[in-house]
Amino acid sequence: TDQRTWQHVDSYIDRTLGLGDPVLDAALKASDAAGLPQIAVSASQGEFLNLLARLVGARRILEIGTLGGYSTICLARALPADGRLVTLEFDPRHAEVATANIAAAGLADRVEVRVGPALESLPLLQREQPEPFDLVFIDADKVNSGNYLRWALELGRPGTLVVVDNVVREGHLADVGSADPAIRGSQEAVELIAAEPRLRGTVLQTVGGKGYDGFALALVGE
Ligand code: SAM
């Protein structure tokens, strides 16, 4: 099979399950109109994130890498009315588009977009001594995926689920000795799951409209 087939099947899944509803479509349209790159999660991946948040009963979610807020909306929809999602975004233009999209989705009361490099925002967030996050979604600069996973341990608790997006990178995850910083970052995240006794997890390869990639999933333990 190839990209055309994966796209075709994603379309079938979206159509049949009614994924990518008008609110999410509007968020994508607004992101495109503002010239944001088309690198949000797909509709079925967004629904997968929503399911994961429901499965862990997430009341507090941390997202690293907001873009136009597509995955933010998918995740925040799983929160109870008193739930909270903090999302970190480096680019003020992306944050602005996301803030409008989140408001249009009726989720402004639950979501806070923080602008700045995540490695600066994370220590600031920690200083506020927030309630531990129940789910952390890592989807920003891939070179730092391992660093963000380390931060997820800091800001989580036993039972926290961490999802790291785009670790498979069309198979380059397996390029041992690669000098590509994004590949190294993905490998660091996977190696940390193996090395850190408080983490257990795995990597799931995915295909679809967004190509060939995959998620790392890790559960924080004692
Ligand atoms: N999670 C989004 C979604 O699925 O809808 C997609 C996020 S996109 C793949 C990655 C985002 O991370 C971009 O908006 C980019 O500006 C942001 N980013 C890149 N480097 C960052 C950093 N150091 N700190 C915070 N955000 C960063």
From TrEMBL:
Presence of the UniProt keyword Transferase in the record: yes
Pfam families hit by this protein: Methyltransf_3
Domain of life: Bacteria
SUPFAM superfamilies reported for this sequence: S-adenosyl-L-methionine-dependent methyltransferases (SSF53335)
MF-aspect GO terms: methyltransferase activity
Keyword annotations from UniProtKB, A to Z: Methyltransferase, S-adenosyl-L-methionine, Transferase
Enzyme Commission (EC) number: 2.1.1.-
Biological processes per GO annotation: methylation
Name this protein carries in UniProt: O-methyltransferase
Native species: Streptacidiphilus jeojiensis
